[in-house]
Structures are given as structure tokens and as C-alpha cells.
Specification:
Helices cover 37% and strands 14% of the residues. By secondary structure, the protein is α/β, with parallel strands linked by helices.
């Protein structure tokens, strides 16, 4: 099982610290932001302990293919209403591509964005137009458009949205998909019949373009379009369905990344990874975190 979680990247060890955090959870994959997801402030690459992080990964048997970068939320390539937002989307995404390449990440997860006050068709066309403005993407970098829950004016709550976007891109080989289990559940897909979900994904997009899975439970009923993550086994999807996702042979080589909520200020990932590896749900482990000071 290729499984890990979102991890922090902060002083003093930055990327090296991210790798160490992932290892402390028993993970063999990890996802990080290259800086704060809500702003454009970034540390210089030579301050991030990148070489040390790569060495640590090698020594502990972690593949660089399982180091994933998540693009910041401020990138909104679907916005055609504010030109300055569209310009930032392209400019900053290009910088994130450079940083991801330097760090050694293969995959960059990107939210398709929100069309704000226009309409879905305009949003999809705007995303295609903006992404086609990116000057160059290294051959070994794949930008993974994330499936969304459909709240507000989000684009990407249907597989068909992502297929249409990728069909319109100039460099299709540099794009793929990140499937978020909470998001597609909230969008209306049936997580209790995941093989049928994969069948539809394969028909509409192609399973060869699925490169990352965000493994999250949901606080909401199916089809709620709210996007509120829940800890594994505590939500409307449930442990059994998520365990079947984590162990599905059709996507066994796709890294699964947990983005579940902290419990009482404590990361739950070590316990959730243990449960998914064993196939045994034990909520007492999560309750331990609730009682910690």
C-alpha cells in the first residue's frame, strides 16, 4: 500500500522535516505545500534542505514518485472576472512548477478553480486558456487536476469537466487527475461501489491518468456538495469503503494521501495509516487523541 498524508514544511528543516514527519507516521508517501497555501511568500530553494530530504528518502526506501506537491489555494485558473487573478494563476503556477521540480516532486495537485459570477462553460474554457499560457513544463512533472465537491461555483465535480479541460490542453502529457474520495462522495458518486466509479473514470478520462488519490472520509451525506473532510471511519463514507479504495488492485500503484482533520490539535495520520494497513478499524486510537492535552 502506497499511503501517506499531508505534512507540514516549516523551519528549521523544511523539506527534510516534512520527510521525517511522514516517516514518523509509518508513511511511504507524503504531500506538502512549498509555502503557505494562502499567500505567495516562499523561502529560497537553497534554504529548504532539499538534498538532505532526498538522501533521507533514499535511506528509508521512499520513492521520489511518492513525494507530491499541492498547489496553493490562491491559484484560480477558472476566474475570468478578475484579470489580475487569472494572471496570478499562471505566473504563480509557473513558479510552483519550478519549485516542485527542484524539490524532486513528480506530481503537483491543482484545484481547477471557481468561475465566480460567470458560468460553468466559461469556467472550463478559462481554465483551458490559462493553463495553455504556461510556457514550459518539465517532462517529468504532471499537474493533477483535483476532483471537487461542487460547492459554490467550483469546476471539477464531474469527471466530464476534467476530461474536457485536459482535451483542450496543448501539453496533455503533463496533466492528470487527483481523485479525492470526500469530494466525489459529496459530488454524488457512490463510494460503496468504487469499482463502478473507477469504470466511469476509465471511460470518461482513462485510469492511466489517475496519479494521486486523496483518501478522506466526509462529514456530509452523499451529494451534499459541501466539502468537509472527516477522519477515516467517522464519516458518511465509512472505513470499509475507504479500505476498499486503499487496497483496490486497479490503483495499487497510485499514492493515497490522507487530508483528514487534526483531532484536539493532534495529527491522526499514524493511527489512520495503521488501521488502513491492517484492515481493522479501531476508533479507540482516535479517541486517545481526543483525550491528549
Amino acid at each position: 500500500m502506497i499511503i501517506g498524508s499531508h505534512v507540514g514544511m516549516k523551519a528549521p528543516e523544511y523539506v527534510l522535516g516534512s520527510v521525517k514527519e511522514a516517516l514518523s507516521y509509518g508513511a511511504n508517501a507524503l504531500m506538502l505545500y512549498t509555502g503557505a497555501p494562502q499567500n505567495t511568500k516562499r523561502k529560497a530553494l537553497d534554504e529548504l534542505f532539499i538534498d538532505e530530504a532526498k538522501k533521507c528518502m533514499e535511506e528509508n526506501g521512499l520513492s521520489m514518485d511518492n513525494l507530491i506537491v499541492h498547489a496553493p489555494y490562491i491559484i484560480n485558473p477558472a476566474n475570468s472576472v478578475k484579470p489580475e487573478v487569472a494572471e496570478l494563476a499562471v505566473e504563480f503556477l509557473e513558479k510552483e512548477i519550478e519549485r516542485s521540480y527542484a524539490i524532486g516532486a513528480k506530481y503537483i495537485v491543482l484545484h481547477p478553480g471557481s468561475y465566480t459570477t460567470t458560468d460553468l462553460e466559461t469556467g472550463i474554457e478559462t481554465i483551458i486558456s490559462q493553463l495553455n499560457k504556461i510556457q514550459s513544463i518539465p517532462d517529468n512533472i504532471v499537474i493533477c487536476l483535483e476532483t471537487m465537491a461542487g460547492k459554490g461555483s467550483e469546476v471539477g465535480f464531474s469527471f466530464s469537466h476534467l476530461a474536457r479541460i485536459m482535451d483542450g490542453l496543448n501539453h496533455k502529457e503533463n496533466y492528470g487527475v487527483c481523485l479525492d474520495t470526500c469530494h466525489i462522495h459529496d459530488a454524488g458518486y457512490d463510494m460503496n461501489d468504487f469499482d463502478s466509479v473507477l469504470d466511469e473514470f476509465d471511460k470518461v478520462i482513462g485510469l492511466d491518468r489517475l496519479h494521486v488519490v486523496h483518501l478522506n472520509d466526509s462529514k456530509n451525506v452523499r451529494g451534499a456538495r459541501k466539502d468537509r473532510h472527516e477522519n477515516i471511519g467517522r464519516g458518511a463514507i465509512g472505513f470499509d469503503a475507504l479500505y476498499k479504495v486503499a487496497t483496490n488492485k486497479r490503483i495499487e500503484n497510485v499514492p493515497k494521501i490522507l487530508e483528514t482533520p487534526y483531532i484536539n490539535g493532534n495529527a491522526p495520520y499514524k493511527y489512520e495509516i495503521e488501521m488502513l494497513k491492517s484492515g481493522i478499524y479501531d476508533d479507540s486510537k482516535l479517541k486517545e487523541l481526543e483525550s491528549k492535552d
